Each structure stands twice: as structure tokens, then as C-alpha cells.
């Protein structure tokens, strides 16, 4: 497009100025124009470096937006040094060392500009300039989208940075812009960044997404205030604060973040009000270092996509959560390291897969009027120096309400633990703690379970409807100090639970020495004499022979190669045992196994039978199966993983430890992952306890091959890999026939053929469940059968038992 002419409408009061002139170049028109004049630029491409130094209006023709291109070969295409109005221009720059649009002075208005450039910055505001920038678009894949520097300011309304090679919007050196209803996306750096003392950024109603760095970054004593903003789909953290940064988020939404939703360090301060944080891959809030602080009010943190705590406070940092909700996360709140503190008031922590509140390494947590629901552990005070207070809190439906271990010493006051599935309160390994006016109701285990002679204080506590008993105290053995054990005053129980009779006599547990009358009427306390059992112990079923167990294995549908492998291994062990009995050397057989294959192929069933076979041969004491996965082994911080793994081994003592989806312990992108600690602990325990625990790791074939290849220490511990192939359609039919026979149903003529066709056609993708799919198909047929027969007024026996081809569900 050729260069056009520039029409200047002069607006001066003198008669000779009230006229219109045309100029062949923009430079000439600007030279001739005076304040208040209007320069209308004809369509075309202008290879000029424009400098606007008067308060004029420079605009493209009406109705032809983008038809005027300012595109010099180098330098700054457009420089503004006056309170001018610049409108409807397309600006292109090629100089990597200069901005495309530079605003240096005045209060100009930039309206409807499109900046498509490969410059140091798309729009740059400096010094005393205070522009108003409306509806402008910046596309700068080589540098910063919008830069406000050296004390500059201004207002950006409804602007969009569609790409940036660095930050989308950068505020530095004491600048202080305001963004309203702007969008920043596809930036190679941070979406919004403010850095340096005196720098500040205010954003209202803005959206930041699809950026490769952090969504918002505030560093080096800068401040920022975001209201009603969205930050999502970043590659890095959602929001990052560092080095005395100050940020306020009000009514904002941070979501779909693969890393930390919010990460702050080095004395930074964050205030969140009515802000939601969801779908984050690591921590929702990650708070580090002394002097760093988060204050959250009426916020919601939920729907984690990773295996990390939702709120992480460490290295002396502080967090305050007031009227907040944290839910659907692996762990809710982790406070660790001396000097770290969390204060939580009137908040809900729920749907937590592991621990709702974890306090360790000398940290402190204070919870007042909070509700903790549906967690594996409500609150866990883990080690020496760790403590704090739970005051007037309710813990409902957790596996264990409160755990205190390893010298931790919290104060729990006026709290209620309702319906725990294991224990209301569990204290062990030198844990202490004071429980004042607390109540445990509806426990499936004990109300208060204190072992190892822990010096716990219970005052005015009450238990109700605890299945195994309200209170259970056990000493720590002969090495326990004579004055150890709980201090109990004015505690009561409704005695409704009693003591569940064990299946075999339990060892005598010594009573903690107390002054007369100290325990009052607490039921279920053990004495130095064995108490009579409430009911006779149930007789133990005799162990099956290996032949009987192998018979059950042979009865399983399919799995021919698996059966051969197990029989060969069993034969090796049996012959080795006989050679030892004959005084001969027996070949050393590694009993640990790798099971590979798709879901539903019988891996867990075979593992259970394998344990029973080893028990029948005298290789294992019990042969029971303990099934775990990553979530049961991997803890939240260094040290806790080893404890969880050791506990799993202890539960499996004398039997089989079955680790499903074991490859999850070694993810391809490990990052800050504690799976390696679980693997290292496994390798050591598999050697130390090789005669008492058999380990079977299982998972998809390809993933398990990768797992073993990247962990040679683990691979060397296993004797062989057994592959479980997918079931053929005929084998799936046999499973359905077995299910039908077991539940007194029959397949009508033609139903077997229809099932075979169904299983042949069913998609065999990741959702295919093999034997599980066969069982689900049978259940679906039974449901459809019931719907059909329910309409028959007087059904016959055939009506009630026959499953027809039309009872098959639709293919998924």
C-alpha cells in the first residue's frame, strides 16, 4: 500500500488558521499542526518515525480501522510527548532495542491502536507520562507487551496483549499503572509483573491465561492490588511473590495451575479476600521464610490435581485463614519448621484424602471454631516442639481424629470427635498433649488410645458409643520410665462399647501407675491381670494346604501363563524346603514379584492366593495381604514417607505387601516429590525383612517397565515378572456364566453368543476393566432383567432366572 496524504484541520481562532490543509507526510503535517488540530491520515503505509509533541488528534479515517500502518525500518515508530489523542492506527516496529509506541510526557489518549511488532516492548510508558489507553491490542512475540517504567503511570482499559516474548505487562522502577478489564495471554514470561521499590500495579476485572511463566509476579518491594481478576492456565505458578513484595487479591479466581497456585517467599505479604483457588498441581498456597505472611478471609481452596498439601507453611512463615474452606485435596494444611505458624478461625477442612492439619518440626497451629470432616487424619502433631491449640473444633467422619507422636505437645480444648473409623485420639511414640473437656462419640475403635506410656493429660473428657472402649492405655515395655503414662482426671464414658474380644489371646498390657481414684469409672482399662473376655474367642480356621490353594488358582478363568509361573515358583520353594529338611543346600529363591497388566486381570486375587500358598509352605507366618498404593506410602515432607512405608511393612509382617500402581512412586516429572524416599525405604526393608514380608508391585505393563528401568535398586529385589494378559471374549463369557451360576441366574438360548459378540466389540481402551467389565456387564443385565420382570404380574421360575440377549447394556 502506498503512502497517502495527511489532512490537517486547523482549529485556531485566527481567521487564517480556520482552514484545512493536506500534507504529503506525517512529519510535515505534525510540523504544521498546532494544539487542538485534528490530523486525519489517509490509508497507506508510512515509513516514518513519528514524534507527537503537541496536543493534537492523530487518527485514521473513520470506518477503516487498521488501514493506516506506521512501519519504519528501525527506531521507535510512534513517540508521544504531549496530551494528544492517537486513534485507529496500526503500528509496526522492527527494532529489538526500542519500543513500538513510546509515551514519555503528558496525559495522552491512545484509542483503538493495534501494535504488531517485534520490539523491546509493544507500548512503553515512562517518567511523568499518564496516558489513558483504551481498546488497544499488542502483539509482540519478541519482547514485553506493555511496559510502564521510571515512575510512569496511566490507565489501561479493555486492552489486550495477545502475545509477548517476555512479560505481558511489566511494571518497574517506581511505576504505577492501573489496568481495567484487560486480557493478557500467550506470554513467554509472566502475565503481569511488578518489581522494584515504589512500583505498584492495580488491576480490576482482568484476565491472565496461557502464559509460560507465573500468571502474576510481584518482587523486590513492589506492591499490587488485583480485584475481580482471573489467573489460569499458566505453565509456572499462578501467583509468585518474592523479596518484601505486597499483594492484595480480592474476589479473584486462580485455577488450572500445574504448579503452585500461589507461592510467596522472603518477607512477602499476601492478603486474599473472597478469592478461590482450585485445580492446582502442587500447593494452593505455598508460604516460605521468616516474615512471610498470608491473610486469607472468606476464601476457598479446593480440587487439587496433584499429591501436595493445599496450604504449605514452612521456614518460619505465618498464615491466617479466617472463614475459609479447604476441600477435595490430598492434604489440607501443613505447617512445618520452627517459627512457622498457622492461625485458622471458623473454617472448614473437608474431603481430605490424607491429613487435614499436619504440624511438624517445631511448628505451631492454632485452630478455633473449625470443622474438620472426612479426612484420613483430622490433625496430626508429629514431633518434638510441634504444638498449638485446637479450641472448640469439631472433627467428624475422619479415620482418626487427632494423632500426637514423637514428643509433640498440643492443647486440645472443648473439641468433639464424632464417628472416627479407627480412633478418636491416638497418642504414641513419646507424644504428649493435653485434652481438656473433649468428647469422642461413635468411634469404630477406641475413643482415646494412648500407648507407649505417653505422658498425655486428659481432663473432663467423655466418650460415648466407642466400639472397642472409651479409653485404652498401654505402656511402652520394660524400658518405660516409672512415672510415665497418661494423667487422667474427671473423665467419663457411657461404657456402651466395651472391649471387642480378640480372635486370639492378646499379651497382657501393664496399667499405668496412677493414684487411687484418678481414672474414676473409665471402662475398658486393662489391669496387670488378664480380664475375662466378654465372649469366647472365635475358633481360628485351619490354614489350607498349598494343594487346596492351587486348586482355587486353577479354578480362575484364564490366566494360563500366570498359573504356570506361580506353580513353577511354588515348586521351587517346596523343593528347596524339602532339600533343607534332607540336610542339602537349597537354592535361594527371591519371593518378591512384579505383576504387570491391565486392570481387572486378577492381580490382587493372585497376590492373595500367593500369600496363602507361602503360608501353607511355612515360608510366611500368616500369608495375609496388605494392599497399598502411593497415597499410603508417600508422605508430605521428608521423614514422613519413611514412617508410612515402615508402618505398611509392619502391617504386612508375616504376609504379602501388594503395591498397586507402583510406578506412581517414580513419576516421570518427579520435581519436589517424595516417592524416591518411599522407594529407598522399600529397598532397604525388602532386604532387612526378606524372610518376613513378600512384596509384590503391580501396574500397567509399559509403566512398570519404566519404573523398573529407572530404579535398578528396586528391580534387583524381584525374582521375576508375571504378565497378566487381557481376557479373551470367551473368557469374559465364562466369568459372566460363573456370576450367573453363583447368583442363581441362567443364560437363555442365544444370550451366550450375544455376550461373546458384545465382549468382542467392546472398546479395549484404558477404561476397559477385563474381569471387572465382565462383572459389571452381568450386574447391568440383572438390573435390566429386573426392570423387565417387574412388569410381569405372575412371573414363572424361568422369568425370574433367565437372562436374555436383550438384557445386555449398550456398548460404551
From TrEMBL:
Residues 490-513 are annotated as: Disordered. Residues 41-172, 313-474 form the Carbohydrate-binding/sugar hydrolysis domain. Transmembrane segments: none annotated. The keyword Nucleotide-binding applies. SMART domains: AAA, CASH, PbH1. Residues 589-728 form the AAA+ ATPase domain. Pfam families: AAA, AAA_lid_6, Beta_helix. The keyword Repeat applies. Keywords: ATP-binding, Nucleotide-binding, Repeat. It comes from the Bacteria. Belongs to the CbxX/CfxQ family. This is Right-handed parallel beta-helix repeat-containing protein. It comes from Streptomyces thinghirensis.
Amino acid at each position: 500500500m502506498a503512502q497517502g496524504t495527511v489532512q490537517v484541520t486547523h482549529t485556531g481562532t485566527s481567521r487564517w488558521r480556520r482552514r484545512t490543509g493536506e500534507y504529503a507526510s506525517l512529519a510535515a503535517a505534525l510540523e504544521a499542526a498546532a494544539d487542538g488540530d485534528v490530523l486525519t491520515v489517509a490509508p497507506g503505509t508510512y515509513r516514518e518515525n513519528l514524534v507527537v509533541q503537541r496536543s493534537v488528534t492523530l487518527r485514521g479515517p473513520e470506518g477503516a480501522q487498521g488501514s493506516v500502518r506506521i512501519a519504519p525500518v528501525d527506531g521507535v515508530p510512534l513517540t508521544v510527548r504531549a496530551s494528544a489523542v492517537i486513534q485507529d492506527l496500526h503500528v509496526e516496529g522492527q527494532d529489538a532495542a526500542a519500543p513500538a509506541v513510546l509515551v514519555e510526557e503528558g496525559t495522552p489518549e491512545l484509542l483503538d491502536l493495534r501494535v504488531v511488532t517485534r520490539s523491546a516492548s509493544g507500548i512503553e510508558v515512562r517518567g511523568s507520562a499518564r496516558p489513558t489507553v483504551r481498546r488497544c491490542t499488542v502483539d509482540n512475540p519478541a519482547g514485553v507487551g506493555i511496559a510502564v517504567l521510571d515512575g510512569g503511570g496511566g490507565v489501561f482499559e479493555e486492552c489486550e496483549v495477545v502475545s509477548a516474548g517476555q512479560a505481558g505487562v511489566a511494571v518497574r522502577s517506581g511505576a504505577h499503572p492501573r489496568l481495567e478489564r484487560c486480557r493478557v495471554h500467550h506470554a513467554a514470561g509472566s502475565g503481569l509483573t511488578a518489581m522494584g521499590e515504589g512500583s505498584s500495579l492495580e488491576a480490576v476485572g482482568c484476565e491472565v491465561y496461557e502464559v509460560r511463566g507465573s500468571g502474576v509476579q510481584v518482587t523486590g518491594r513492589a506492591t499490587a492490588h488485583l480485584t475481580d481478576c482471573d489467573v489460569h492456565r499458566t505453565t509456572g505458578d499462578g501467583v509468585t511473590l518474592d523479596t518484601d513484595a505486597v499483594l492484595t487479591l480480592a474476589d479473584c479466581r486462580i485455577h488450572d495451575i500445574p504448579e503452585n497456585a500461589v507461592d510467596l517467599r522472603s518477607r512477602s505479604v499476601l492478603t486474599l479476600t473472597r478469592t478461590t483457588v482450585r485445580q492446582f498441581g502442587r500447593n494452593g498456597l505455598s508460604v516460605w521464610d521468616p516474615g512471610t505472611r498470608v491473610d486469607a478471609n472468606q476464601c476457598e481452596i479446593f480440587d487439587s490435581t496433584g499429591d501436595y498439601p493445599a496450604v504449605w507453611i514452612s521456614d518460619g512463615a505465618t498464615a491466617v485463614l479466617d472463614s475459609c474452606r479447604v476441600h477435595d485435596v490430598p492434604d489440607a494444611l501443613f505447617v512445618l519448621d520452627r517459627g512457622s505458624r498457622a492461625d485458622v478461625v471458623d473454617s472448614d477442612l473437608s474431603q481430605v484424602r490424607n491429613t487435614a492439619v499436619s504440624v511438624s518440626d517445631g511448628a505451631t497451629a492454632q485452630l478455633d471454631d473449625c470443622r474438620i470432616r472426612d479426612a484420613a487424619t483430622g490433625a496430626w502433631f508429629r514431633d518434638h516442639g510441634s504444638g498449638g491449640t485446637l479450641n472448640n473444633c469439631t472433627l467428624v467422619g475422619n479415620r482418626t481424629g487427632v494423632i500426637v507422636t514423637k514428643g509433640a505437645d498440643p492443647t486440645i480444648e472443648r473439641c468433639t470427635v464424632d464417628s472416627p473409623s479407627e480412633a478418636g485420639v491416638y497418642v504414641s511414640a513419646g507424644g504428649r498433649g493435653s485434652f481438656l473437656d473433649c468428647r469422642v462419640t461413635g468411634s469404630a475403635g477406641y475413643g482415646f488410645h494412648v500407648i507407649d506410656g505417653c505422658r498425655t493429660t486428659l481432663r473432663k473428657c467423655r466418650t460415648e458409643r466407642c466400639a472397642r472402649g472409651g479409653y485404652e492405655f498401654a505402656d511402652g515395655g520394660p524400658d518405660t520410665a516409672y512415672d510415665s503414662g497418661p494423667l487422667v482426671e474427671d473423665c467419663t464414658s457411657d461404657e456402651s462399647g466395651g472391649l471387642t474380644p480378640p480372635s486370639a489371646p492378646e499379651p497382657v498390657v501393664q496399667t499405668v501407675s496412677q493414684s487411687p481414684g484418678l481414672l474414676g469409672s473409665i471402662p475398658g482399662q486393662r489391669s496387670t491381670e488378664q480380664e475375662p473376655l466378654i465372649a469366647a474367642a472365635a475358633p481360628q480356621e485351619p490354614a489350607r494346604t498349598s494343594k487346596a490353594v492351587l486348586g482355587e488358582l486353577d479354578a480362575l478363568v484364564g490366566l494360563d501363563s500366570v498359573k504356570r509361573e506361580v506353580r513353577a515358583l511354588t515348586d521351587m520353594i517346596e523343593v528347596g524346603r524339602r532339600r533343607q529338611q534332607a540336610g542339602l543346600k537349597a537354592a535361594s529363591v527371591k519371593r518378591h514379584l512384579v505383576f504387570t497388566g491391565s486392570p481387572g486381570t486378577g492381580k490382587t486375587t493372585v497376590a492373595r492366593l500367593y500369600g496363602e500358598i507361602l503360608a501353607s509352605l511355612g515360608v510366611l507366618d500368616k500369608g495375609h495381604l496388605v494392599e497399598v498404593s502411593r497415597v499410603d506410602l508417600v508422605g508430605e515432607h521428608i521423614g514422613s514417607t519413611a514412617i508410612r512405608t515402615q508402618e505398611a511393612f509392619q502391617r504386612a509382617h508375616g504376609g504379602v505387601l501388594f503395591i498397586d500402581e507402583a510406578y506412581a512412586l517414580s513419576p516421570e516429572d518427579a520435581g519436589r516429590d517424595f516417592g524416591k524416599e518411599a522407594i529407598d525405604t522399600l529397598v532397604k526393608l525388602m532386604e532387612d525383612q526378606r524372610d518376613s514380608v513378600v512384596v509384590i508391585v503391580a501396574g500397567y505393563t509399559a509403566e512398570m517397565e519404566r519404573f523398573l528401568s529407572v530404579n535398578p535398586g528396586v528391580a534387583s529385589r524381584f525374582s521375576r515378572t508375571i504378565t497378566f494378559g487381557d481376557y479373551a471374549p470367551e473368557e469374559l463369557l465364562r466369568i459372566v456364566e460363573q456370576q450367573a451360576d453363583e447368583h442363581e441366574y441362567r443364560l437363555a438360548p442365544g444370550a451366550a453368543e450375544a455376550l461373546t459378540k458384545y465382549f468382542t466389540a467392546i472398546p479395549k481402551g484404558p477404561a476397559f476393566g477385563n474381569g471387572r467389565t465382565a462383572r459389571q456387564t452381568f450386574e447391568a443385565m440383572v438390573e435390566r432383567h429386573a426392570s423387565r420382570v417387574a412388569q410381569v404380574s405372575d412371573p414363572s421360575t424361568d422369568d425370574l432366572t433367565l437372562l436374555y440377549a436383550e438384557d445386555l447394556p449398550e456398548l460404551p
